[in-house]
Each structure stands twice: as C-alpha cells, then as structure tokens.
Batch of 2 targets.
Target 1
Amino acid sequence: MKQSITLGKVTKFMGLGFLSTLKALFTGKLEKEDFIKFLRKIVVPLASILLFIGLWHLGAKTLYDREANFKIEKALEDQGPEAAEVMRACIASGDLSCQPNTLPAPAQVWESYKSLLRDHNIISADKAAFKEKTAALNAKRISEGRAPIVYTGRPSFIDQIVMSLKTVFAGFLLALVIAIPIGILIGLSPTLKSAFNWFIQIFKPVSPVVWYLLVFMIVKTVLIDSTEDSSFVISFISVGLCSMWATLVNTAMGVSSVDKDYINVAKVLKLGPFQKVFKVILPSSLPLIFTGLKITLSVAWMVLIAIELLAQSPGLGLFVWEEFQNGANDSNSKIIVAMFVIGIIGFLLDRLMLTIQNTVSFNKNEGL
Amino acid sequence: MNTVLKNRSLLDISDNGLFPPSNVMLDLKHLKKVYPTPKGDYVVLEDLNLQIMKEEFVTIIGHSGCGKTTMLSMIAGLNKISGGNISVLGSHIKGPGPDRGVIFQAPSLMPWMTSLQNVLLGVNQVFPHATKAQRNDIAKYYLQKVGLEDAFHKKASDLSQGMQQRVGIARAFAIKPKVLLLDEPFGMLDSLTRGELQDTLIEIWNKEKITAVMITHDVDEAIFLADRVVMMTSGPKAKIGDILEIDFQRPRTRKTVLEHDDYYKYRKHLIDFLEH
C-alpha cells in the first residue's frame, strides 16, 4: 500500500515530466522506443529555442543597421559628410554615446542580465555593511524607544523581484479571501446569485488601470493620517480586485454544479448545512475552484506590472518603467531581461498552483 | 419471517389494503405524480396503491420510463408528491431522511473519501451519540460484510464499479434504515459482478431483514431476491399491473432457486406481463 516517492513521480506531479526523460538519458536507461519521445520532448523544444534566438538576433541586427544608417544619414544631411564619417566611426567603435537605440540582441540582453546580478551583489554587500555599521547604534535607538535607522539605498533587481512577488501574493490572498466565500454563497443560493450577478457582470471586464484609480481614491482617504507609504497597499488591493473574478465565477459555478447524486446522498443522510458544505460541496467543487485560482494568480501577475507602474510601488513594473524613462544605453536590454524574468516567474507560479491542486484535489491532473 | 408469510397466505394478497396495519412498513396510497409541461400536465403515476410488509423484499419491474424510479425517489423523499401520500410505519413522510436508506444506480460515493469515510458519513449522522470507536466499528463491520475488509482506506475513486457499489450497500445498511430503497443498483455492472453482488446483498439482507424495495430490469434478479414481484404498467398514468408472490424458502441459493419447479412458471408469468 505504501507508495515510495521517487524523483520521477514528483516531477510528473508538478507537470515537469520531461525531467525524468532527461534523467533516463543520462543514466543510459533510455529504451529505443523512448528515443522518439525524447526527441519530441527535449530536442524539439531546444531546437525551437535556438531558432527563436537566431531569429531574434537577425531581427535585432536588421533594426540596429537601420537605426545606424538613419543616424549617419541624418548627420550627413544636417552637418555634412565629415560629421557623417565621425558618426560612422563612433558607431563602429562601440562608443556608448552614439549607439543606436533599438531592440537589443540576445547577447546584449545576456550581458545586462549578468550586470544586474553584479549590481545586486554590490548592493547586497552595501546593505550588509550598512547593517553592521548601524547595528550598535540601532540597538541603542531601539532601547531608547526610537525607530531604528533603515537602509534607504536603491533596491537591486532581485529586491524588486521579491517586492513584486510579495505584492502579487498579498493581492492573491486578498482575492482568495474575498472570492471564495462569496463564490460559495452565490453558488449555494440562487437568490444571492441573481442579487450579485449584475455586479459581477459589470465589474469583471473593468481594466486594471481603472481598478487602480478606484482603489487609490479610497485608500488615499482611508490612510490620510498615516505617514506610511501607501503605494504597496494600493497596488496589492488593486491586484486582488482585478484578479479575483475568475475565482469568484469558478467557485460559484463549481458549487452550483455539484453532481446531483452527491446532493441526493447528502439529503438522504440529512447532513446539516455545515457538513453538506464542507464534506460534500466544497471537495467536489475543488477542481473548478483551483482552475479559478490558477487564472487568478496568472492574471494577478500580469496586471501587477501595470499597477506597480501606476502606483510607483517598488517592483518589476516600476523597474521596467524606470528603465524606459531612464533611456540609458543598456535600458532596453534590461527591459527585455525583466520581460523574461516576468515570464519565467509566471510559469513557475502556474506550476506551483498545479502542484498544490494535485495535492489537495481528488481529480488528478484535470487542470492540465 | 415465516410467521409473516403464513399470516399473509391466509389473506388475499393480490389486493392492497388487506394486511393487518401493524405489519405494514411502507404504505403508498393513491400516489400521483404530475410533471407540468408546456403542452399540459404529464401524469407519470396515477392512483398507485401499494403496501409493503415489515421484513419483506419487494422487487419492482416494468418497462423503461414507466415511472419506477419516480416512485422510488418519491418514497426516498427526493421527489415531490403530487397527490396521495406515502407513510412509513403509519406516519407520512416529509422529505428525505435516514430512515429510508437508498442505494443509487450509480454508486454515488464521494470520490475524495476512503470507503470507510464514505460509510462513516452516514453512520456519524445516524449515531451522533456513539463514541468514535463504536462508529468506526459499525462502519467496518458492514464493510467486512460486503467483502471489503482489505479496502477500508482505499479512495473511492480507486475502487472498481463493483467494489464501489459494495461500499454503497455497506453505507445503506450501516445507517440501519427502516426501509431500504434500491434503484437498479446492479444495472451498470457486468453480469458476473452482478451475480456476486446479488449474493452479497441477499446474504447481508438475510441477517438484517430490512424491508427492501428494489427496482430492476432483470427478471431473474427480480425472482431470486424477492418475496413479491410488483409489475408496473407502462406510463403515462402508470400503476400496479400485477403482483407475483415468490414462494421460495429463505435463505435461498441461486442453485436451489434455479432448480425449483416453480421457477420457470414465475419467469413465464413476468415475461408474459412485460411482453404485453
């Protein structure tokens, strides 16, 4: 009866089954029949990634040349052939002051990624030094009942990722806390459903920007006395309100469409309302609730960027916006780095939800 | 049981309302079921009268769509009564309740629970004052009776159809209902499994003697299990067409039933009714 937990099972459970194929390849256990499967699962995606990078490189090069030619011609028109020659030489030398500003090539993006990591290490070291320096002073300040001195330097890229994750989880939890109970109530009672339906239908399609503005209006007034920075509060509430609708609708649908047989069993056994909800209705609607939660989390992550940007709340969204405003030479490639980071984190969040779903739900892998 | 049968044989059993009231477990009087449709009312059952005795096993047979299931779910309290009444031990039923256990056509187990949890769901409800250990014992006892002593902690979704229906039987018996209602419980099973489950059912029923009403399509099943086979006329406005008394000794085995001289007589009677 006891099931052993193997790497293969765990990865398959998380929807990362291709990892076990990879393992089989390295341990030499791959059967001949599996070879085609291996090709399809590993080689084809790798090839398409390489193709993608190649096309990107070519595209970026074309755009670069176009921008460079434009710059040289402009110099020729405005200042004559000498200036054009200077410009050509400047561009060829790789001088940062005259580089064409366009879509960065993959290599540039990789460089930016490494420089962001270096930057993070420097800032971390800085922070640690600051902490060490102020440790004694802060201990004294705390004992005197005063607020400790905190590090106010620029956050690194990694710090901003962490901030974004915090915001998205706070927003997600808010969505969960609001949407699931209301969804259950609406699903259980047709009366409540018709009472709330117009509300859902009208507010569901509202854009994140408008939600942000609404939350801003309210939170600004509520926190009028507070000296704290309210941008985090505003952004996580906005994220929660934008993203909760999928969970609300799915929960209501799951609860109202429980298999009639289960309801009949509950009726025959005369289960009380509490037992009926927790032993029959909720477990049987879990798969749909989780489908909703998965959509909610991915929507939350998607709108987060826009909302952080508007709220000036530290995080990846603000990072992207600041880099765009900054217009430095490597800004464009940093934006692309952020794009990949956002995408990969979004993917990992989705897998995380799938793993949780498979753990608690009785319908294995239905959500794939 | 034998005394009941003897008492009964003194009376004319083909008519309703002639049993001594103290022996009647389930009483259907002038039962009517109407479904409103855009084209006017559709009368499924009309003026249906049936009395079922204590410790009696009745099977109901009839063509598909004649209203057998409607009647059974009305007895269970899951379907509203349009006219007439149903009483259990003399008192009218009001909605569903654990005094009438139901074994559904689909096993209807909660797939996220183990077989033990599924049985306990009912047991906890019916014996709220028993200790946890006692309730566990009751659930385990009935699971053993249906041959699932090795599957207490298996998820219902991991069991075969036949095993799931065994849990369904255990769940129904474990709440010690006054009446057991079975809606074609073996209809979805292959014939081998069906035979096994009939044996299991009749074995546990022989011990408990819970008044049972079972719908079936299967003539042999109807004869093998029943004290009386109730034949329903085809709908609309279905009612009781005929009642056949099965006079085999209990406990029965399939072999003795099949070898009994009257078996083919009963079988012919039922088939003649169904073919008209």
Target 2
Amino acid sequence: MAERKGMEVSIAIAEAASACDVDCIAAYPITPQTHVVEHLSEIVADGDLDAEFIPVESEHAAMSCCCGCAAAGARTFTATASQGLALMHEILFIAANLRLPMVMVVANRSLSGPISIWNDHSDVMTERDVGWIQVFAENGQEAVDLVIMGHRMSEDKRILLPLMVNFDGFILSHMVEPIEMPTREEVKRFLPDYEPQQRLDIDNPITMGPVGMPVVYTEAKMAAEWAVRDAYKPMVEIMGEFEKEFGRKYKPVETYRTDDSEILFVVMGGISETAMTWVDKVRDAGVKVGLVRFRMWRPLPVEDFKKAIAGVKVLGVLDRHFSPGGPGGPMAQEIKYMLYGQDHAPKIVETVVGLGGRDVNFIDFDQIFDRCKAVLGGAPVPPFELIQVRGGHYGKA
Amino acid sequence: MPKQSPAPDWQDLALGTAITEPGSSRYQRTGDWHSSAPVWDLDKCIKCGVCAVFCPEGCIAMRADGYPEADMEYCKGCAICVCECWAACIAMVEEKE
C-alpha cells in the first residue's frame, strides 16, 4: 500500500496525472488556473514525465490543442476553472461529439460578475449540456482517484468520451490533505497503455469533425446521447476494478447514514464533508437525517438516486448555483426531473448556498433542516431560496 | 458507389461522425436545392462554351455533338450562364416538381 502524505490537493492531482503517464498537457498558465498544471509543467521540465507540455494563449486554445492531441492518439490531460472553463465552452462540445478521450480537472469556481475567484459550482453547472462525462470529488484523495479512474473510463472502448473531474476550487484545490498517492507502477497495472480506437493517421486517412448537414445532425446528436448514457455500466465496472486494485470504493451515488431517515440532504462536492460532520452531530442528538451525494453527474445516475432516496419524505437540496429568473438550482431541477409524476415522491426543499466562496456552516444546515422539518410536518413547500443572503430572498421580513 | 448511405441511422454513423472513406465527397449530390434549370435553345447556340467557362459549379460540359449540357445533380440554378451567354440562348425554366 502506498504511503500517506500531506499534500496540497492541486499538487496531488498533478502527481496523479503524471502517474497516469499522460502524453500531452495543453493549458493556459495564469488565473483562473490552479497549481495543477503549474506543477505538471515542473514535472515535465524536470524530465520526470515524458510528455508534451503546451502552454497556450487562452483556454479556448488549450481545449483546441487537447482535441488535436487526443485526435492524434495521445493520452491527454488539462485543468481549468471558472472563466477558463467558460472560454472553452464551444470546444467542449467538439471534444465530446468527436469522441475524443481526455481528462480535464475543473477546480470549481464562480464566474465573474462581480469578479470572483472563489468556490461555487456556477462554472460546471453551465456546462451540463456539453456531452462530457462529469464526476465530482469531495476530497483530495477522491480527486486523485478520479483522475486515475477517469483516464481508464475515458479511454474505455465502450465509452470513448472526454471526462471532467470536478473538485471545489480553494476549499479543496489549495488545501493540504493526507493523500495516498499510487505509484506509477500501481497505476500502470490498473491503466494499461492507451490504444486509440480511431486517430489521425496518414496511412489511414479519415476526416474528423466534418459538416453535419441537417440530414445527419439529428442522428449525430442521438449518438452523443447514447454515448454518454451507455458510459454508465462500464464506469461502474471500472469503479469496481479500482476498488480491487486500490481498496477504495466508489459509487455513482453515495449515501451517508440514510437508515430510517425521513429527511435527506442532497449535496455535491466538498460541502459533503461538512454535511457528514453535521449529520453525525444531529444524529447523535437522536434526529434521523442522512445524506445523498452525486459522485456521477453525467450520465445522470437516475436509478441509483431513486434507490438512495426510496421511502424518504423530504429532500433538502443544497445547490451551489442557480439560474436567475429561472427554475432555481440545477441539482434540484434535475432531481425534480427524476421524480416528477412518481408515486410517493418526496417533497423538495430547494436551497442555494455557498456562492462565490461563502462558507457553509452548521448554522446553515440547521436552517435548511428547520425548513425540511416544517414541510415534513405539513407546511407548504417553499419556493427555492438563497438562504444566506442578507435582506432575505423574498424581501425583508 | 458510396459505402455509407447519405442518410444513415444513428447507430450506423462512424465514431464521432468521422468520415472514414477518403474522397467520399464525390458522392455528395449538391444540386438538390435549385428551383429552376437552364434550358438551351440549340437553334441559337453557337457552341462557344462560355456558359461552361463561367459556371461557378463547373457543372456544364460540352456534349459530343458540341452543345453544352448542365449536370442537374450539381447545378444550383444561379443563372450565371444565362447572363454570360453571347447568343442569349439560355433561359431559366422554373421546375414545378
């Protein structure tokens, strides 16, 4: 078993990408970048990783370069955050629809207006439709493990899609955590050399990314839909194989102390760790409450989620982003999609917390729990609410 | 003949909608949106070939008997041949079907 060491999570992710023996890294080196690619550039410059590090002029170019690397058959890695992810937007669709395997780590950070560099999920949640596999880590070890699993998943012949590993900016990216870093040899046993299914090759010329006339575009989109949906089974299989090799278990939807709970909180990302500590506290006081977390976000693990919340009366959903003038937070929207029209569906108390780096503390969990308890007791379900806002979401009381 | 139907089911598309057969664009018939077709009055035609020279699609060829003919699988109905014809012998005729 590998040694456990204190490491900054960004540095650990870079070491994990290096252990995966990636061939190409294309990244834009300054804000809103993290130490992930900074450290990778050091590893490459020191000769410890035989890879092409391409420092580009923008994130748009970074993702375009990554597409080229993946199309050439290279194991490709990059990292970004907030505005950088937004600048990649149009190329993200291309990477997915051209079926180009790669792993991108996203340190989830808020989007500007006002300028912010801190943590929430507004960057990734506005990229839900791009056709990538999307997974969420809630601590440094998970981020490391998901990078390693991510390459295996992305390159699996049954998947062949780009994969996004999300982890919270600052709250995780700049945190020093104990990390069990697998060695390159251990990773190699789990992650064999990459054999591309299809690549640019002058001896076997193909055209990637041609025009899709109206006669074929709809079919291309259907293929993209099933590519992501069909990734579910092999992803679960690979999580199982990872557990066999490294002893850490991953599931599409994770639960925590859900036994006999009438109320469950639904969260995603690093906030889960605080939520677990809070659950422990209130459970110890005799209150039956538990936690559900999405590990896999695309494909959306509908059946796992339904199973995880079976029999529950009220769900307290804690989103980290919302659509102004729209239907509230993205996680709550998708949960409603999963449960609409279902008999005995739980009531949903939608809240938005932790925007632009605002801390989410026990007092916030307590507040949300009070709302859930009121709904459990028969009170009408309140509209979605940004609970930490001074002045009140619906005006001053 | 094309290996891949121009209108395949989604299951039959190549990975990432790639085109796996080089030169397959020659199977693409691109003239299906013309709404009128050039018609030559061969009594007036002087077989000069100016229509073929100016055709932006290069779809007008001179037949064995020396008269021009448009390949309607590529003709877009732009009527440049009508404008350029020295003998004013070409007319655009609307296609009803």
